[in-house]
Amino acid sequence: MTGYLGKRTNQDRDVVGRQIQNKQENQWGPIPGEIVSYDAAAGTATVKPLYKPVHNGNAVDMPELYEVPVDLPRTGSAGMTFPIPAGTKVMLTPAMRSMDNYEAGEGGEPFDGRSFHLADMRASIAGGDSLSDPMPNVDADNTHLRFSPDGAFGIKGSPDGKFRIDGSEGNLYDIIATFMELVASDQLIIAYGSSAGTGHQLQNRAELMELAAKVRAMAL
User: Fold this and answer.
1) DSSP letter assigned to residue 219
2) What range(s) does the Phage protein Gp138 N-terminal domain occupy (predicted)?
């Protein structure tokens, strides 16, 4: 509360100060939220705000927000999509003015006079996570596109151009390189077990081993 207290001590600056403070405290800004359900076709979600405003000294739950636009990485020619299960944390950010017309594809002029309103929240999947629940197993040295929450499945890339693709059956590069090395070994056995085509067999083996070495070298 700004200014002085009491019936006879309120000055114009105190009244204006309280009005400004009340307006500021009632204006919505970015707040964390949690996905309740996600409509991938519509690109919207039902979101539960995780901020709890205090009324009469008690923290109260906010109502769920419906048909909240969900922002995913996208350009005019490309994009990335993700499964967004219930419980996913998001960051809710209000628009400066009403966005009904824009969302309906009818232009950017405001639909009415509201501003920073709960009805104009957008949800971003980048943000919303608490520091008490950091992402596990973060690789600080390589770029990692995860396909599972713990990072066991996914694609990694290093700044020096090496890669790692981990799936349910193991590291793809390791599987490919092992296969090529086994084929090359068979070529060597065939070459020394037969007098026909020995030179060609050895050449094939050398090429296979060279390719296997490249795969091994590219593996992270």
Assistant:
1) B
2) 31-122
Structure tokens at 102: 């824009």
Give the whole-angstrom CA distance, residue 151 versus residue 139.
9
Q: Which of the four CATH numbers 2.40.50.140, 2.40.50.230, 3.40.50.2300, 3.20.20.70 does domain 29-131 have?
A: 2.40.50.230
Region(s) of the chain under CATH 2.40.50.230: 29-131
